[in-house]
Amino acid sequence: MGKTHLMRFDEAQYAAIFGKRDTAGGAGRTRLCKVCGEWHSLDKPWPHNCRPPAPPRADYAAPMLAPKFEPFKPSMLDDRIINDRREKLSYMDEHDLVEYDEGVKPEREPTDREWEEQFVADVKRAQDLYPGENVEPVDIVGQTDLDGSPEVEISDIEVADMGPKA
Fold it and tell me: If phi over 0 gives left and psi between -120 and 50 gives alpha, with beta otherwise, what is residue 40?
């Protein structure tokens, strides 16, 4: 808990924050408040603004109950009907299916560094497999061996004019 500071308020400020002061100085148990500096009766509920903050709630405070299983037909082509969870799991195992889980994240794309490391490893593996062949990587576009296929002339390509954009 953080530090608390004892402050004195005039009657209007005190009433706006904590409510009217308890002027009944009769018998009963009281306790000095660490927040507002006044004495509060223990016979009454503690004032709301003087209460400590509530502790954080745990995510597992309530039990999770599985909903009732409803039979279903997994395929339009199959006459089979799945009646319970065990049948569903066996059907999923037979057909290499998995249940959807929002907590499972898709595989991320490799970074440039990882991609380059994989590329270098692939080239080295190819050189080891085929030592007599020249399998040098080409990083510059346009310097690739076309294996006898003709170059594509881009000056002969017709471009259709679609008109002005709206």
Answer: beta
